[in-house]
Ribose 1,5-bisphosphate phosphokinase PhnN
Amino acid sequence: MSGRLIAVVGPSGVGKDTVMRALAARAELGLVRRVITRTDAVGEDCDVVSADAFARRRAAGAFLLDWEAHGLSYGIPVEVRAALAERDMLVNLSRRVLERAAALVPGFMVISLTAAPEVLAERLAARGREDAADQARRLARRVELPEGLHVVEIDNGGPLERTVETALAALYPVRA
């Protein structure tokens, strides 16, 4: 593999998918299309499948990586390995599976997006996927990143362009 698998992680509402789309539009980065058992995928570019279809795919070895979160199943198609032969790929991953991903893919790195709690609360309310109680639970969750990973932390509480420029500088530093 010559490309890197680059996980984009952060709390709900931090703008992971928005940042990934903006990065892919500016650089030679591919986007990994996740498989999810969600009934609606507003704002996400993913393949929505039933729980039964997901289980069949998992049993057939169709996923490089899969996990459960918030009552849903998520999978990263095994075809991502072929895409990595061509270029770097961005993927929205759960922070809980980062160590597994690092063990599976050489050169794995993480972009950890952050934003102030009030920014996250505003974004969660605007997207309207959860009720107020679910939003509060998501805002209260704290998941520490595992030690030993290549992690770049970026504040996404301001303008998207600033976040994109910071991420591109971290991913592709200018060599003297």
